Amino acid sequence: MSGDVLSFDVSQLSLAEETIVESLSNITTKAVQLTETIKEILDDIISDRIESARNRIQKAIAIFNNCRDSVLSSYTYLAKVSTTFSYSIHYMNLINNLREVLQDIHKILILMNTTMLSKIKENEKLVIEIQKLFDMVSTYLKTISNYFLAQISKSGKLDELLDMLYKNLNSVESYVHEGLANNLYETLHAYALSSNVIELTESIAKLYEALICLHIAKKS
Questions:
Q1: How far apart are CA 41 and CA 11, in angstroms?
Q2: Which residue in 126, 163, 164, 213 has the fewest CB atoms around it within 10 Å?
């Protein structure tokens, strides 16, 4: 066996892991951009700027496609370096769960662009409720991105950020399950949209669980 195969040292392992963490942070930042664009779409709907809303939906889909490309690149890189550093399975789980979150947001976008746009605009209160959900999801994703950045900088705020995430997640779950999902179904008879909102909530919960597993593994 050649010496090159055995030449990995601690700094090289750290570099591979840091590259993955930076990639996760970048994907999460793009996901935040996606949620912010959806909030702008909902602003357009409230103001009866339907054509502008349609244009922003196309912009949001382009952001999603860019996120999907970044996810694929992360998979490819992780496959190449996974045997060179610990915790690679935890990073794979994080990439998988980020992908699920993005896919669930994409499903909501597609529904908004097809059958739901005209129905949604008829109920401003419901639009504001959906907007609040994406505001909460945006805050949640920003906190995850900050966690990855803190991991790179070796900040001592990781536990604090996880506590914030837990509170964010509880807020989202309560908001969806105690009102929004039912309101979507009863007001719009929008079973698909209601289901997708619930799926998004479940996906961000899985993302939190994957992050907790990584955090515990690295501390043990």
A1: 45
A2: 163
Rounded CA-CA distance 147/129 in Å is 27
Mean pLDDT of 11-22: 78
CA distance 171 to 173: 6
Burial 172-207, CB ≥16 within 10 A → b, else e: beebbeeebbebbbebbebebbbbbbbebbebbebb
pTM for this entry: 0.88
Residue 165 Rama label (left phi>0; alpha psi -120 to 50; beta): alpha
Cα–Cα dist 12/43, whole Å: 47
The Cα 41–Cα 53 span in angstroms is: 5
- For the stretch 44-103, pLDDT in tens is 888 888 889 889 999 999 999 999 999 999 999 999 998 888 899 999 999 999 999 999
Name every residue whose Cβ is closer than 8 Å to that of residue 121 and which is 6 or more positions away in sequence. Answer: 45, 46, 48, 50, 127
- Which residue segments constitute the domains of the chain, with CATH numbers given? 7-219 (1.20.58.220)
